Amino acid sequence: MTNRKQTLLKLALAVCLSAFLLGCGSKINQENYDKLKNGMTMEEVKAILGKPTESKTAGIGPLSGTTAVWKDSNGTTINIKFLNGKVQLKTFTKNK
């Protein structure tokens, strides 16, 4: 392979890799928020959003509650309340 062909091949690979990486945006978006349903477990939510930015759990007797928050670098936030390990309430806030 000539030097010119090698250079063009490297350039094409660099462009493809860059396009791929740019396409890998934040998981904290409206599309993924819409996939979240009441009754889902934390593990099901993590499969969609990844690990939460912060999480707090409290329990009283047989009840346990967890608040988990996912934030991206733009300030977009998904806040989910779990009751006994299942989604009960969710909110989506997009930073303007």
Quaternary structure state of the chains depicted: single chain
Q: Could you give a short account of the major beta sheet? A: 4 strands, antiparallel
| Shape type | elongated
Spell out the helices and strands N to C: HHHEEEE
Binned strand content: 25-35%
CATH topology, by name, is Beta-lactamase Inhibitory Protein, Chain:B, domain 1
Unreliable runs? 16-23
Number of domains: 1
CATH level 1 class label: Alpha Beta
Class from helix and strand fractions: alpha+beta
How many β-strands, per DSSP? 4
The percent of residues in helical segments reads: 25-40%
- Using the 3D structure, state the CATH architecture: 2-Layer Sandwich
Mean pLDDT: 87
Rg over C-alpha atoms, rounded to the nearest angstrom: 20 Å
- CA distance, first residue to last residue: 50 Å
Q: Report strand order across the widest sheet.
A: 1-2-3-4
